[in-house]
UniProtKB/TrEMBL annotation:
InterPro entries: CHP02058 (IPR011719), Tubulin/FtsZ-like_C (IPR037103). It comes from the Eukaryota. The keyword Nucleotide-binding applies. GO terms for molecular function: GTP binding. This is Uncharacterized protein. Pfam families: Lin0512_fam. The keyword Nucleotide-binding applies. Keywords: GTP-binding, Nucleotide-binding.
Length: 166
């Protein structure tokens, strides 16, 4: 059995299946980058939670997890972040902010979450290792849609906590 750090590293190397928004950010030259391993979050500026659901949770929990991250950030703006970081000597502004993401998904789906997909949900910043752990919810959706790949009557809910700072 892999220890927690090894699982985080293995998860970070999985192939990404990003959504339309992250493709738009990529085309615009945006996208969060992985922070160096020794990076620590010292000052917290913003914390937000989000929830995401995949009503056809047969392919793991990545879709629900990315939706949770998106919900956590999509109705928020940090207009002063650029000034705050530059005033403290960070030359890249928002590009230097740190992102800490914690995800809760049903226990049997923890290893199914692609942290590359999670990273792709953020347009800028330096991403600390994404922590995925048991939490969230799964339930019967009341239907099986074989045309969508459903093999069972299962929906998956993920919760995300996104912390921004430097």
């Amino acid at each position: 059995m892999l220890n927690r750090a090894a699982r985080l590293v293995a998860r970070s190397r999985r192939a990404s299946t990003t959504g339309a928004t992250s493709q738009e950010w990529k085309a615009a030259g945006l996208g969060a980058q992985w922070a160096p391993p020794e990076t620590t979050l010292n000052e917290i500026v913003f914390v937000q939670a989000g929830m995401g659901c995949d009503q056809h949770g047969t392919a793991g929990a990545s879709k629900a997890a990315t939706r949770a991250c998106r919900q956590a950030i999509e109705f928020n703006a940090l207009p002063y972040m650029e000034t705050l970081l530059r005033d403290r000597g960070y030359e890249r502004g928002r590009g230097d902010m740190l992102l800490k993401v914690e995800i809760g998904v049903p226990e049997d789906l923890v290893d199914s979450v692609s942290v590359e997909d999670i990273r792709a949900m953020f347009p800028y910043g330096r991403m600390l290792p994404v922590e995925v752990r048991a939490g969230g919810l799964d339930f019967q959706s009341g239907r099986v849609v074989e045309a969508l790949g459903d093999a069972a009557d299962r929906a998956v809910v993920a919760v995300a906590a996104v912390t921004v700072g430097f």
